């Protein structure tokens, strides 16, 4: 097992990466402070891991409450109505301010459970037990929580840190292929934004990554979390540098919003978005056309999409982008690449250049 | 104009107390950082002050958006559904992360607008312009924001500080008598919990308080805010000492919840609750029966209720109290009085003594 540290002063917390951690009662219980627990999960994950997690929790602690809530699965349910189900459950079962919420699932469960924890009685503890690659390398680390609004993704939320993240490599074995690949997209992101050596490593390990080799999984998750923790520690509330973690996300969110979260998965949309960001960067003369092709090739070899869904056109794409949180005084600030491995947040591009990228990608 | 300072490190902010501040464009605009503003108010306050506030804002700033949202009035609307109206408005009108929300109204508007600000795009700036005595002396200061749930008051919320509080004494002139008196209850609270000299001062100024003498209003609001700011600066997130600000509130919330926020006003319920806390304190031998009578007399002379509504019985009262946020491991922690002017948070009372107080007050 590896242990990383997210350095955020009094809000610091550990990330554990290993195999079989869902069954590690001693590890889990070390991070439960009160005597009440609510495990929030979804209908896909519950049959696989809920009993095991609850057994681990009850083995190590004398709890007065050990409840579970099973939500419907999918990004389409990441909204205020589903969030309300968590509040209702907590209040009907009289959970106090000393309760701990445990998020068992992917990014949707983690984001919603984290936001419920941030806002139930103005804040209770929560533990992330991410079961997808995407949530292990990205959404469970860094404290971004929230839900979507019909008019935009993650528009309602809070910065709220977990007390621990427990990433069990075993859960990646049961992950559907498409979801696994969507997680790999966020892994590629870390190479692109700040870790050129990791980008090269990924190109060299495509076949082991696609085969979910456990040793390679561990290394990949650890290096991703280390990258993310470093950025978050430098800028918890995304005042500046943290925004580079959004490489491909403004483009990607526009796709997700237009498809109403029923088309490409988040990671898939980010894969397309990263390629669009690379394309725009090359139009600015920052990277070469061959580097864009290099990235396209890597994404394709990892089974990721590289084209915009047929329902989009460039006008709708631009309108959806302008709803993004990173708009400041009317200009959409984008994460672009000065090199493969060096990202920057900027509003300093011509509208015509963005239009060229949109025209090149939209059907 | 008086200026107080709430000392919370990087989250510090000023409180301004004076006359005609709604029309002070220069003062208001100093606390707007971006170029977008949404004023949230209610249908009672809007006809009185919305135009004046908007004129002040537009006189001093070149804003790209100056929107307003008028919500229905009353505690019954302080819920997730009304909160959603704020999110909808912000998104439909494309407010960015650099927008500022201005809460123009009483505690309900301030709590909901503050929570919307805490959670819109994971946090935007907000300014409190409290127009009721209760919100000026209590709810606008200290960063408690949130909404009610059918099963409990303020169960969903966040600690989130405004960038400024602007309290215009002029707005107290238009306040209905009952609401004014409800605010006076929270003023009495500061005397009871930590400021015995203020308690004596209040007894000496009953007639000026009832007459809303402007000089006395200024002094009363300033001393109340100073007391609150001191406590909040010592314990922002209510880990310990801040809980004394809840004197009378556990009893009061039980009344409000049972009446479904349609009976006594919050401050009125707190008045009854403070007297019940004093009664229990005297049963513990901490204060004398004559001190309880002294408080009852003061509350009555200020036009405040001192009896529990006829719909309550002691069993329902106890059940409603046990839902309070201040429950720890099954024990309701209460704010009780060691003396008039010295409060303590404690679970150290016998259930039978609490029962005696409930029986004495419930019809």
Tell me what the structure shows.
The structure is a homodimer of 363-residue chains. The first copy, chain A, has helices at 25-29, 46-60, 80-92, 107-119, 133-139, 177-194, 196-204, 206-210, 214-234, 249-258, 266-283, 289-301, 314-321, 351-361; strands spanning 2-6, 13-18, 36-42, 65-71, 99-105, 125-130, 144-149, 152-159, 164-168, 327-328, 331-332, 334-339, 342-346. Chain A is an alpha/beta fold and 363 residues long. The first copy, chain A, has 2 domains: 2-174, Rossmann fold; 177-361, Dehydroquinate synthase-like, alpha domain (Up-down Bundle). In chain A, a hairpin with a 2-residue loop joins strand 12 and strand 13. In chain A, helix 6 runs antiparallel to helix 7. The termini of chain A are far apart. Chain A binds chain B through residues 34-35, 64, 80, 84, 87-88, 91-92, 94, 96-98, 115, 118-123, 144, 146, 149, 151-152, 154-159, 237, 322-323, 325-330, and chain B through 34-35, 64, 80, 84, 87-88, 91-92, 94, 96-98, 115, 118-123, 144, 146, 149, 151-152, 154-159, 237, 322-323, 325-330.
Short key terms for the protein model shown above:
homodimer, 363 residues, alpha/beta, Rossmann fold, Dehydroquinate synthase-like, alpha domain, seven-stranded mixed beta sheet, globular
Q: How many helical stretches of chain A?
A: 14
Largest interface: A-B, 40 and 40 residues
**Low-confidence regions of chain A:** none
End-to-end Cα distance of chain A, whole Å, is: 46 Å
Shape of chain A: globular
Within CATH, the superfamily of the largest domain in chain A carries the name: Dehydroquinate synthase-like - alpha domain
- The total beta strand count of chain A reads 13
H/E element order of chain A: EEHEHEHEHEHEEEHHHHHHHHEEEEH
Total domain units of chain A: 2
Strand content of chain A: 15-25%
Chain oligomer state: homodimer
Instruction: State the share of residues found in helices of chain A, binned by percent.
Output: 40-55%
Main sheet of chain A: which strands, in order across? 1-2-9-6-5-3-4
CATH class of the largest domain in chain A: Mainly Alpha
Please outline the major beta sheet of chain A: 7 strands, mixed
Mean pLDDT of chain A: 94
Q: What's the CATH architecture of the largest domain in chain A?
A: Up-down Bundle
Named CATH topology of the largest domain in chain A: Dehydroquinate synthase-like, alpha domain
Overall structural class of chain A, as computed from helix and strand content, comes to alpha/beta
Q: What value does the Rg of chain A take, in angstroms?
A: 20 Å
């Amino acid at each position: 097992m590896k242990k990383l540290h997210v350095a955020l002063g009094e809000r610091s917390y550990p990330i554990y990466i290993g195999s079989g951690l869902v069954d590690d009662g001693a590890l889990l219980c070390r991070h439960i402070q009160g005597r009440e627990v609510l495990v929030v999960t979804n209908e896909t994950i519950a049959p696989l891991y809920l009993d095991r997690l609850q057994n681990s929790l009850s083995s190590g602690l004398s709890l007065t409450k050990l409840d579970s809530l099973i939500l419907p699965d999918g990004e389409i349910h990441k909204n205020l109505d589903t969030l309300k189900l968590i509040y209702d459950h907590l209040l009907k079962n009289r959970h106090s301010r000393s309760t701990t919420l445990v998020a068992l699932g992917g990014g949707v469960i983690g984001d919603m459970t984290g936001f419920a924890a941030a806002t139930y009685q103005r804040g209770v503890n929560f533990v992330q037990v991410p079961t997808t690659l995407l949530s292990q390398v990205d959404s469970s680390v860094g404290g971004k929580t929230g839900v979507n609004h019909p008019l935009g993704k993650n528009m309602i939320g809070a910065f709220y840190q977990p007390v621990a993240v427990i990433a069990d490599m075993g859960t990646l074995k049961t992950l559907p292929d498409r979801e696994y690949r969507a997680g790999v997209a966020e892994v590629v992101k870390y190479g692109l934004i700040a870790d050129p050596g990791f980008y090269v490593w990924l190109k060299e390990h495509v076949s082991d990554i696609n085969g979910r080799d456990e040793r390679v999984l561990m290394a990949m998750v650890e290096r991703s979390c280390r990258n993310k923790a470093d950025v978050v520690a430098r800028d918890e509330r995304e005042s500046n540098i943290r925004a580079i973690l959004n490489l491909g996300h403004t483009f990607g969110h526009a796709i997700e919003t237009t498809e109403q979260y029923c088309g490409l998965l988040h990671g898939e949309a980010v894969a397309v978005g990263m390629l669009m960001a690379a394309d725009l960067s090359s139009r600015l003369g920052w990277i070469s056309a061959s580097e864009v092709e290099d990235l396209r090739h890597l994404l394709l070899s990892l089974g990721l999409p590289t084209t915009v869904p047929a329902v989009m056109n460039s006008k709708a794409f631009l309108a959806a982008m302008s709803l993004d949180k990173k708009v400041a005084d009317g200009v959409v600030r984008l994460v672009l690449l000065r090199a493969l491995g060096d990202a920057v947040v900027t509003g300093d591009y011509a509208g015509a250049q963005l239009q060229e990228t949109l025209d090149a990608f939209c059907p």
